[in-house]
Each structure stands twice: as structure tokens, then as C-alpha cells.
């Protein structure tokens, strides 16, 4: 069965790293059909709309979407796309690759972050002049859905534990529910269920991230801790992410448009190629996904490397090397 992939390079270095990742996808044995679509600042300037209808339709029709980055219009692009695919899970692996200068070279963890609720539910108001409030939403259904996703992910990927991160000692009702449901779901799996308070987790990650594998978090905690984890493994050019939903999935590098280097052809394509590897695995091409990841790993170890990693190679040369190693 052919899978349809919506390809949205977006702005800045998205225009460079996404075509490189698509070349890698084409070099695999996966049966994929690519549909190019526009989003971001450039199309907004031309048409007034950062996410044209044709792009929405392409995302809705696709089995998965590969997105580069959007500049000023990022929120107008990414949030509606997450909604279109019904995304409830943000999956952000933070892995230190050999040959890359990482704070903690043995880090290999995945943050599974609930993607729709908490303080990001968007319920804020000014109830009186100078007095503002934000409503934190945690539901049993959404907590169950993300917990099932995290435990399933852990079981499928050979982990022996899931760490539930929360602040239920203070937010007793909301995080209390998140925690309770996570433990309930965890009891159905042959996996250890561990828990760490979110503030303590920040210290643990900085001191010794190697003790963690799959980390399940509510929305805001996951956002902050995954950026912390990114810092531990050597920077933005290497971090992939997935937004997984009921109606599809969207894969994107964690980095943005990098206007300082856009147009020079020197952006590191690794994060986007690793996002493409996650896309392959999501569609069931596990072997192809692993092959792509291995090829990226060998390339990071043996070169060529882009300037952000101390090399002199262009984006396309790195992609060529990955393809050769496939
Ligand atoms: P945006 O406003 O789109 O988020 P930004 O520059 O604020 O852009 P990033 O795009 O994430 O944020 O870039 C932060 C820094 O990391 C920049 O100096 C950029 O050059 C560098 N960087 C990010 N991604 C890459 C990459 N793929 N290859 C090389 N350098 C990168």
C-alpha cells in the first residue's frame, strides 16, 4: 500500500533540510508518494494566509506530514496542523550521538508529552484590571490516551520502565489525576512505573540523564524538560520530533528557521532526517526507519559534518553521505 506524505518545507532552512530528508526517504524501500505544500511566512506574504486551504487539505488527506519550520507565523502553522492530525502526543527523543559534543554522551531518552491540555489549553483571562488567571485542564480521557501511548511505545521499543513526571504534591487535583491514570494504565503492562516530581526531574536530567528511558509528562513540563534534554545532547541540529494523533501524524525537527544561516546551504539536515526515520517507523516501516537512523549515526561519527558540528560540509553533502550508507 502506498502511503501519502504531505511535505511542507516552510521557511528558512526548512527549504534546505526538508528536500534533503525527502531525498533520503526516496532512497529507502518504503512505498511513499510525496505531495508538496506551502506554509509559513513566505506564502503568507504572497497570499495573506500562512496555511492555505490546499495545504490543510494535503495534511488532512496524507498518512503523515513532514514539516520543516515556519518563521513569525509558526503558531499559525503548527497549531492548526496539530489540530488537523488530532495530535495528542508530542514525542521528542533526546539521544547523544557518537562524535557529537554532548554534555552527557550516554543520554538516550524519549519524552512523551501530552500535547493538548494543561496550561496550554488556552483558557486565560483578565478577571479584573491587573488580575489574570489561567485554567489548567487535565482530563481522565486525555491522560489515559497519552499514558497508553507512552506505555505502548516503551513496550514496543524494548524499554523496561516508564517514568511519570508530575507535580501532584502541589497540583493535587489536576496532576493527581494525571498520575493516578498513568499508574492505572501502567499496571496493565509488564513494565516498571516510576515517578519523579517535575522540579526534581530537571536536576536529575542535568546530573544524570542516563537513568531515564521513556518519560511521560503533562504538557508544560514536557515542553520545558525536552528543551533541557536537547541541551544535554549537543544542540538543536540533531533533534527530531513527532506529533502523533488519531487522524494522522506530523514530523518536524525541533529547531526553527535559523535565519542566521538560511540560504547558505549549510544547515544540518540530521534532525529532519531523523524525523523522517520516525515517520517511517510510524507508518510501519520499522526496518527502513532503523536503517536511516543507523546511516545518520555513521555519518555523524565519520563525517561529513556541517559547520554547526565543526565540519565544512553542505547540507546536500551530508544527505548524500546518508543515502550512500543506506
Ligand atoms: P526561529 O525564529 O525560526 O525559531 P531561531 O534562530 O530563533 O529561529 P532556531 O532556528 O531553532 O531558532 O536556531 C537557533 C540557533 O541554532 C541558530 O543559531 C541556528 O543557526 C542554529 N541551528 C538551528 N538549527 C540548525 C541546523 N539544522 N543546522 C545548523 N544550525 C542550526
Uncertain stretches: none
List the helices and strands in order: EHEHHEHEEEEHEHEHEHEEHHH
Q: Biggest sheet, open or closed, and with what strands and sense?
A: 10 strands, mixed
Ions, cofactors and other ligands present here are: adenosine-5'-triphosphate
Helix content: 40-55%
Number of strands: 12
% residues in beta strands = 15-25%
Per DSSP, the total helix count is 11
**Mean pLDDT over the full residue set:** 95
Shape: globular
Side-by-side strand order of the widest sheet: 2-1-3-12-11-4-5-10-8-9
Determine the N-to-C terminus distance. 22 Å
Which secondary-structure class do the elements indicate? Answer: alpha/beta
CA-based gyration radius: 19 Å
SSE arrangement:
Layout: E1 3-10, H1 14-26, E2 32-36, H2 41-47, H3 53-61, E3 64-69, H4 74-84, E4 87-95, E5 108-114, E6 124-128, E7 131-134, H5 140-156, E8 161-166, H6 174-186, E9 192-197, H7 198-207, E10 214-217, H8 219-232, E11 240-245, E12 249-253, H9 270-282, H10 286-302, H11 315-325
Parallel strand pairs: 1-2, 1-3, 3-12, 5-10, 8-9, 8-10
Antiparallel strand pairs: 4-5, 4-11, 6-7, 11-12
Helix pairs in contact: 1-9, 1-11, 5-6, 7-8, 9-10, 10-11
Bound molecules: adenosine-5'-triphosphate.
Amino acid at each position: 500500500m502506498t502511503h501519502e506524505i504531505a511535505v511542507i518545507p516552510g521557511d528558512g532552512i526548512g527549504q534546505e533540510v526538508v528536500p534533503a530528508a525527502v531525498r533520503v526517504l526516496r532512497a529507502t524501500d518504503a512505498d511513499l508518494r510525496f505531495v508538496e505544500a506551502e506554509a509559513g511566512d513566505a506564502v503568507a506574504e504572497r497570499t495573506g494566509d500562512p496555511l492555505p486551504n490546499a495545504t490543510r487539505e494535503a495534511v488532512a488527506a496524507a498518512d503523515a506530514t513532514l514539516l520543516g519550520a515556519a518563521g513569525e507565523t509558526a503558531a499559525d502553522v503548527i497549531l492548526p496542523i496539530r489540530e488537523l492530525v488530532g495530535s495528542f502526543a508530542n514525542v521528542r527523543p533526546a539521544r547523544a550521538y557518537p562524535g557529537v559534543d554532548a554534555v552527557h554522551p550516554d543520554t538516550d531518552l524519549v519524552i512523551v508529552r501530552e500535547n493538548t491540555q494543561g496550561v496550554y489549553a488556552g483558557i486565560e483571562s483578565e478577571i479584573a484590571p491587573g488580575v489574570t488567571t489561567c485554567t489548567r485542564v487535565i482530563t481522565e480521557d486525555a491522560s489515559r490516551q497519552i499514558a497508553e501511548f507512552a506505555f505502548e511505545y516503551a513496550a514496543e521499543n524494548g524499554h523496561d520502565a516508564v517514568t511519570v513526571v508530575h507535580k501532584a504534591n502541589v497540583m493535587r487535583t489536576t496532576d493527581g489525576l494525571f498520575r493516578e491514570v498513568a499508574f492505572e494504565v501502567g499496571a496493565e503492562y509488564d513494565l516498571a512505573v516510576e515517578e519523579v516530581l517535575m522540579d526534581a526531574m530537571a536536576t536529575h536530567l542535568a546530573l544524570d540523564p542516563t537513568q531515564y528511558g521513556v518519560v511521560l509528562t503533562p504538557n508544560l513540563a514536557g515542553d520545558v524538560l525536552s528543551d533541557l534534554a536537547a541541551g544535554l545532547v549537543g544542540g538543536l541540529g540533531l533533534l527530531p520530533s513527532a506529533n502523533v494523533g488519531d487522524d494522522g501524524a506530523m514530523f518536524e525537527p525541533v529547531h526553527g528557521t535559523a535565519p542566521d544561516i538560511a540560504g547558505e546551504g549549510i544547515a544540518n539536515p540530521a534532525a529532519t532526517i531523523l524525523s523522517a526515520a520516525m515517520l517511517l517507523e510510524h507508518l510501519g516501516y520499522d526496518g527502513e526507519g532503523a536503517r536511516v537512523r543507523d546511516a545518520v549515526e555513521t555519518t555523524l561519527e565519520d563525517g561529513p559534518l556541517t559547520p554547526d558540528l565543526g565540519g565544512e560540509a553542505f547540507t546536500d553533502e551530508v544527505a548524500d553521505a546518508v543515502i550512500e550508507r543506506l
